[in-house]
Specification:
- This protein is an all-alpha fold.
- The protein folds into two domains: 1-62, no CATH class; 66-231, no CATH class.
- Helix content is 64%, strand content 2%.
- It has ten helices and two strands.
- A two-stranded antiparallel ribbon has the order 1-2.
- The chain is globular.
Length: 298
């Protein structure tokens, strides 16, 4: 949050300074954006290097095996493709609009900014609910997951509907803050009202996409898993798969997978409760640090 606010505030302050005072015009706007992004990135790097958070960016703590890389890519690649395709669609739209003149290009640019007022707010709702849904998936509290998802969908749809209504009602005033030419303003108003017809659906889209990511997204759906991600961490959470009611091969009592290779400990909570500050290898190929959070999964 602090990093985002820092980058955006720098951008807001430097934009008029470099465009109006220094007279750098478009180059000034680009430079201000780069400075804001670099400042936010530097803040995040320093925050992690100081060692305050439980997360680490040190090379010794990085791992690519045990399906970690595949899990990251299965969620990251679709998100990257979505951003790339959005940029491609904007370029194609601007290219097509160029045939109608500079005023049409200016109008569609402002219209897209008007529609993003609704889109970005709904995106924030979707990103905000993702960790909550992820916690429910990890703890397998599916009833709470469904309640959160239903509330988030209703709230996001209602917020999208309200923001769409406000933007539609004040389209002329919002677009007029960017454009003074009557022809460009007329284009912007028409385009904006067309784009805003899908505004109420923004919230549903972002909440559902983030809900899928919270459940493991690509690996959970594309891999055809019958069990939610994280279900193998807690013995006894899954029913026995054997027809005779016995344990499944490689699994613990009642179908739950034994979390560690030490026969004297039956589950991850038991291991972590020891709080001995050691790192032990589990049979799912992950190291659990118990020195930072005794009694919990680190």
């Amino acid at each position: 949050m602090v990093g985002q606010v820092l980058g955006n505030l720098l951008n807001v302050v430097l934009d008029p300074l470099m465009i109006l005072v220094f007279g750098w015009e478009i180059a000034g706007a680009a430079i201000a954006t780069v400075i804001g992004n670099v400042a936010a990135a530097v803040y995040y790097i320093l925050f992690f290097l100081r060692g305050k958070p439980s997360l680490s960016i040190c090379w010794r703590d990085c791992a690519l095996g045990d399906g970690i890389c595949a899990g990251v890519l299965s969620i990251g690649i679709p998100a990257s493709l979505a951003s790339i395709l959005m940029s491609v669609s904007q370029m194609v739209m601007n290219s097509l609009m160029a045939d109608y003149g500079d005023m049409a290009v200016a109008g569609i640019g402002v219209a897209m900014k008007v529609s993003t007022i609704t889109g970005l707010i709904c995106m924030g709702i979707g990103q905000g609910v993702q960790p909550l849904l992820g916690f429910c998936v990890g703890a397998k509290t599916w009833e709470r997951y469904q309640k959160l998802l239903r509330f988030s969908l209703l709230f996001a749809f209602g917020l999208g509907l309200c923001m769409t209504g406000l933007c539609t009602l004040f389209t002329v005033q919002i677009a007029g803050g960017f454009l003074t030419d009557p022809e460009a303003l007329d284009y912007a108003v028409q385009f904006a009202r067309i784009l805003l017809t899908t505004g109420p659906l923004f919230g549903l889209f972002y909440v559902l996409s983030n809900a899928l990511q919270a459940m493991g997204g690509g690996s959970f759906l594309a891999g055809g898993q019958s069990e939610p991600p994280g279900a193998d961490l807690y013995p006894g959470a899954l029913p026995a798969a054997g027809a005779d009611g016995g344990d499944r091969p490689g699994l613990g009592p009642a179908g739950g997978r034994s979390a560690i290779s030490d026969p004297g400990v039956d589950s991850l909570p038991d291991l972590c409760a020891s709080g001995d500050g050691t790192v032990k290898e589990t049979d799912i190929g992950k190291c659990i640090r118990t020195d930072s959070f005794p009694g919990t999964v680190g």
